[in-house]
Amino acid sequence: MKKLAIVTTHPIQYHVPWLVRLAEKKIAIKVFYTYEQSRNGTIFDPGFGRNIQWDIPLLDGYEYEFVHNTARHPGLENFRGIVNPTLIDKIEAWQPDGLLVIGWNYDSHLKCLRHFHGRLPVYFRGDSVLLHERKGLYKLARRIFLTWVYHHVDYALYVGTNNKSYFLRHGLKGSQLIFSPQAIDIGRFAQAGNGNVQLAQRWKKELGIPAGHLTVLFAGKLTRVKNPGFVLDLANVCKDLPVSFVLVGDGYLKPELQQRAQGKTNVFFMGFQNQSVMPAVYRTGDIYLMPSLSETWGMGINEAMACGVPVMASGQVGCATDLVLENKTGMTFRLGDVEKCRKFLETICQDRTRLTEMGACASTLIQFFSFSHIVDSVVRAMTETLWEPARRKWMNAAL
Predict the structure, then answer these.
(1) In this structure, what DSSP letter does residue 263 have?
(2) In 3-state terms, what secondary structure has residue 186?
(3) Which residue ranges form the domains of the chain, and what is each CATH number?
(4) How many angstroms separate the CA atoms of 54 and 97, rounded?
(5) Which one of 82, 196, 275, 367 is most buried, by most CB atoms within 10 A?
(6) Residue 50 is inside which H or E element, if any?
(7) pTM value?
(8) 187: CB partners within 8 A, 6+ apart
């Protein structure tokens, strides 16, 4: 049985399900978690402004190890926040046939890419895009640096169209790229049972949302980059429509947003909601809105679509190219374009059948962005490079 070592920072609800499925294949995996401080299941999230402990299991069904992190200031916000002096030795002691690194932008992760390049097939998975690049000399210098980084990668598992363009721009060839879609637990979100619909209806009643109103949902961190202020701008121009807006989440902008919303009868707030109830949260909305200023992907889009909810996304959301089909699964808009959004909502208010049609289309499309496709991409990458270690060993001996 071939062995794959996987390096990532900490258990993440979007990764663990496909890790478990991969462990069930004829590949032995071991995950090396580099942010040791997360071993108790708690992570401080600066966006939410609080410690987060997910209420779904994240350490069951696969082999893993938390590697000692000696960073002076441990954390996920800076390159030197992840420093694991024993990581390479631990990986080598396990004797894998391949290495998958998720994210390069930590001290230990980049060292792994450099050390194992030429020794093992090195696979990489990340979701960066070109949408949010700075201009000028910084852009040029970063392009040169990233081309050097990805020179150490044999295969990149790209999550979508924008991510593929990013890898191609930084020196990887098309033959080195394998589609590995950004995915969520579709089955868990798609289930209308388990009381999800009833809970959503109860919340709407408790909030005081008028019966018959079209409900637009924002669910995420209340931070500048997530652009929740746009929700209030849109609510202002929609005050003559039978539309209500619900903001779910926490963050440093919450007091300011609540103050701005005073007197607005079509705006409602809910606090942070954990993973187990998110399928119900999405069902409080008839439409899901993601107005982010910058979003490499936007997993909330996946989750909403799995619940059969159409979406509205800004053009700065990385997944919009792949998932938001105009007037089929929802609509996209330029940052600040409240008028296009208002017209879209007005059209739906006049013909609610369009909402049902778009929701059904969203549910169908999201099936192609599943954990099974991620597993298949990893298996394919390993299958195509099984001969690499032997070839390199022979070449090194010959030289």
Answers:
(1) T
(2) helix
(3) 2-183+370-398 (3.40.50.2000), 190-368 (3.40.50.2000)
(4) 32
(5) 82
(6) strand 50-53
(7) 0.89
(8) none
